[in-house]
Design a protein that fits this description.
- The structure is a single chain.
- The chain is 39% helix and 17% strand.
- α1 packs across α6.
- It has helices spanning 11-21, 41-51, 72-93, 125-140, 161-171, 188-201, 218-228, 259-263, 272-281; strands at residues 2-6, 27-31, 55-58, 96-102, 145-150, 153-154, 175-178, 182-183, 186-187, 206-209, 216-217, 236-239, 253-254.
- The protein is α/β, with parallel strands linked by helices and 287 residues long.
- It has a single domain, classed as NAD(P)-binding Rossmann-like Domain (Rossmann fold, 3-Layer(aba) Sandwich), CATH 3.40.50.
- The structure holds NADP nicotinamide-adenine-dinucleotide phosphate (NAP).
- NADP nicotinamide-adenine-dinucleotide phosphate binds next to α1, α3 and β4.
- The site of NADP nicotinamide-adenine-dinucleotide phosphate has 27 residues, from α1, α3 and β4.
């Protein structure tokens, strides 16, 4: 099976490439901007023509959540139109598409985990642009897509919250972190393994939630990062979103339900704490 990974140098894409390379039944091509521009149909056409994939995994996105508030047009080109162009090319060539999306399509006002079929209600520009891309994939490839929503992603490559906290632990005596945003920190290598499982087992198409299981606040998550780094967790101080305002609103409750995996006979992803321990074993370090 021929698999095209778009955005292969990003945080998720770079975790995905070695996982897929271990599967000898796959011929894998990784590509990233500027060798492909998903906001340009001609560029997509050229890459498809040269490789003729059976599966496309789209990890490419405009991921600057705060910048998207003032650059929504640009974010929409990449997150909204890009997946539409990709899905259209997949439709014409009979290719399946794995498209990666986000918890930000929900506003975070829930108090129990969001089900896969919950109606989205984004509160940020980034969330609106990602939702536009998701809807295009669902509309154009109703029977040949996997929409994988992930959240709070961290990996060995790229910048992310875990790496930032490890740096701040070295630079500061204390660090203040919000207690009133709860979610599911997700190790990119675990999500990569789960996507590998999708290709292997080929369950029913549709939406799946690609997050490590359990839930935790950023504050408690940071305490665990400090503990694993051998630092005193009491150097992490509690604060609130009201005291730590950022351009894009953050969902207060970003917990995604995993029932769909179980319905399809597949395991959900492991608990976030085990995944974080694995990231430390794998050598995650400062950005
Ligand atoms: N990071 C998170 O916490 C998080 C949370 C929830 C969901 N997600 C979703 O997970 C997916 C992967 O995220 P990530 O953290 O791995 O993102 P990332 O590290 O920002 O990687 C995205 C990749 O896409 C590339 N790209 C940007 N514009 C492109 C274009 N027009 N054409 C082709 N490639 C382009 C980027 O290249 P350049 O570097 O050259 O721009 C980069 O290599 C995304 O769909 C994201 O929305 C992420």
């Amino acid at each position: 099976m021929r698999v095209l990974v778009i955005g292969c140098n990003g945080q998720l894409g770079s975790a995905l490439m070695p996982v897929l390379a271990r599967n000898r039944s796959l011929a894998v091509l990784g590509i990233d901007y500027p060798d492909i521009d998903i906001a340009d149909p001609h560029s997509i056409d050229l890459v498809f023509g040269g490789f003729d994939p059976d599966f496309v995994i789209n990890c490419a996105a405009y991921t600057a959540v705060d910048d998207a508030e003032t650059n929504e047009d640009m974010a929409m080109r990449i997150n909204g139109l890009g997946p539409r162009y990709l899905a259209d090319e997949c439709r014409k060539s009979g290719t399946w598409m794995v498209h990666v999306s986000t918890d930000y399509v929900f506003d975070g006002s829930a108090t129990s985990p969001y089900a896969e079929d919950e109606t989205p209600s984004p509160a940020s520009a980034y969330g609106r642009t990602k939702l536009a891309g998701d809807q295009a994939v669902q509309e154009l490839l109703p029977a040949s897509h996997y929409l994988i929503r992930t959240a709070w992603l961290y990996g060995l490559q790229g910048s992310n919250f875990v790496k930032t906290m490890l740096r701040l632990e070295k630079e500061r005596d204390t660090v203040s972190v919000v207690t009133d945003q709860v979610g599911q920190p997700t190790y990119a290598a675990d999500l990569a393994t789960q996507i590998g499982l999708l290709l292997d087992r080929h369950p029913a198409p549709g939406t799946y939630h690609g997050t490590n299981s359990g839930e935790v606040s950023w504050f408690e998550f940071t305490r665990e990062i400090f503990r694993l780094a051998g630092a005193d967790p009491d150097r992490v101080l509690p604060t609130t979103s009201a005291e730590f305002v950022r351009p894009a609103p953050r969902p207060a409750y970003s917990v995604l339900g995993h029932d769909r995996w179980m319905q399809e006979g597949l395991p959900e992803m492991r608990p976030w704490r085990e995944a974080l321990e694995q990231a430390f074993e794998d050598g995650i370090s400062t950005d």
